[in-house]
Design a protein that fits this description.
Belongs to the thioesterase family. With 268 residues, this protein is of the alpha/beta class. Helices cover 32% and strands 15% of the residues. It has a domain of 187 residues: Rossmann fold (3-Layer(aba) Sandwich).
Length: 268
């Protein structure tokens, strides 16, 4: 896809006085609004910056991506100035986990500023079985029912063909992104020398019907430092069981703010 974005992938300018920027990457079929409540749950000094892919929400008029390599390349070019300005971390949920990891891998190859940590949720490492189905396995009715079954769609959508005609093409293109992860420049999980010098914290929902915790745990094969946490809830545990999830994420971010070399807090 070749497109000139009419709207930035960030909905606003980063806060100048933030001590840590947290770039958040949404799930397949979703958008930046998934992270709308996060700022109030995280430590002061963390600037939550949801990343919006084109073709949905505020960018609904723009052509969508269908290829993981193109997504990573476009985000890398747009976000590079922001990622180089100061300390940052990233959280990616489901498809967003793969996008966040591939973007970070590209940054490291290019000599860009690395993240303080990378947080990945509800997505199997590429070396494991795929988290999400191929884009064309199900017809529209079957795909909509699957979304309802794992909590990605309200049952009220099943009777609304007009809504599904908008939603399902977005989801199918996002599934194409997931299926093309081999074009995103990920390291070889079987090569210990290719492991990235990063700290990754991964989260899995204990009741997730799409991805098992051991498949999420396989992200540890890609990096030097890894921690895995299983939290209550299904595939969308940040919404289904937010307190346990943020009970882990918030302290992890607080530790980054307290680490030696972290920017000082702004004067009160």
């Amino acid at each position: 896809m070749t497109t000139t974005a009419a709207v930035s992938c960030l909905g606003r300018e980063p806060l100048e006085d933030a001590r840590l920027r947290l770039f958040c990457f949404h799930h397949a079929g979703g958008g930046a609004s998934f992270f709308s409540s996060w700022a109030g749950r995280l430590p002061p000094g963390v600037d939550v910056l949801p990343v919006q892919l084109p073709g949905r929400e505020a960018r609904y008029r723009e052509p969508r991506f269908q290829d993981a390599g193109e997504v990573v390349g476009a985000l890398g070019r747009e976000l590079a100035p922001r990622l180089d300005e100061g300390p940052w971390a990233a959280y990616g949920h489901s498809m967003g986990a793969m996008v966040a990891f591939a973007l970070t891998a590209a940054r490291l190859r290019e000599g860009g500023r690395p993240p303080e940590a990378l947080f990945l949720g509800a997505y199997a490492a590429p070396v494991a079985a795929p988290t999400l189905p191929p884009p064309d396995r199900y017809d529209d009715r079957e795909l909509a029912r699957l979304l309802v079954d794992f909590g990605g769609l309200s049952p009220q959508f099943l009777g609304r063909d007009d809504w599904l005609r908008v939603l399902l093409p977005i989801l199918r293109d996002d599934l194409r992104i997931c299926a093309s992860h081999h074009r995103a420049g990920l390291p070889d999980p079987d090569d210990e020398w290719a492991r990235l010098p990063l700290h990754v914290e991964a989260f899995a929902g204990a009741d997730d019907p799409l991805v098992r915790p051991d498949a999420v745990r396989a992200w540890g094969r890609y990096v030097h430092s890894f921690r895995m946490t299983t939290v209550p809830g299904g595939h969308f545990f940040p919404r289904q069981a937010p307190d346990p999830f943020f009970g882990h994420l918030s302290p992890a971010l607080a530790r980054l703010l307290a680490a030696p070399g972290a920017p000082p807090a702004a004067p009160g």
